[in-house]
Amino acid sequence: MLIALADRKGKAVALHRGLEAAPHRALVLGPVLAQVWRPRPTLVHALAGVLRDCTVPGARTSEPAMRETRAGQAECIACAAGPDLTDWRRVGAALGEARLPVGKKPDAVDAWVALSAVKHGSAVIFTSDPEDIEAYLGVLNPSDVHVHRV
After folding, report:
1. Predicted TM-score of the model (pTM)
2. According to the model, what pLDDT value does residue 73 have?
3. Would you say 33 and 5 are in contact if contact means Cβ atoms under 8 Å apart?
4. pLDDT tens, 113-131?
5. Low-confidence ranges of the chain (pLDDT < 70)
6. Pairing verdict, β 54-55 and 123-127
7. First-to-last CA distance in the chain?
């Protein structure tokens, strides 16, 4: 999704704009950002603009996960708590058990994205590789996480 947003792909931009009204900002996990970020001025400029509307859980300089309301600043427990040992074990188990598409290798970042969505519940993951994410979700067995191709 970040690559599509940086490339200003219409579908990705429309989906991202649609999230601006949601109480919880879109998540960009730190490892996902690291996989995409490169020191090229046009990419840095595009991603910096996108990140203003997102939260990077655990990053001190990131926007807060929840948008301010008339009742004050709410907190997202899943974002504020960060991962624990059980989470990392679940990621490892998903890496070992996922039935990935032929030719694909286990990817800890994709598994962490899947688990983060599971922890948030009622989540949608926007990705260019839905089969990979769905393989990890198949192991994690959430009831309300959806995957959308961009």
Report:
1. 0.92
2. 73
3. no
4. 999 999 999 999 999 999 9
5. none
6. unpaired
7. 6
Check residue 12 and give its pLDDT.
Answer: 95
Asked if 90 and 140 touch (Cβ cutoff 8 Å), the reply is yes
CA nearest to 37, candidates 59, 22, 19, 68: 59
Calculate the alpha carbon distances from 97 to 27, 73, 106 in Å.
25, 39, 10
Three-state SS for the chain is: CHHHHHCCCHHHHHHHHHHHHCCECEECCHHHHHHHCCCCHHHHHHHHHHHCCEECCCCCCCCCCECCECCECCCCHHHHHCCCHHHHHHHHHHHHHCCCCCCCCCCHHHHHHHHHHHHHCCEEEEECCHHHHHHHHHHHCCCCEEEEEC
pLDDT of residue 72: 74
Long-range contacts of 13-17 (CB under 8 A, 24+ apart): 15/126, 15/148, 15/150, 16/50, 16/53
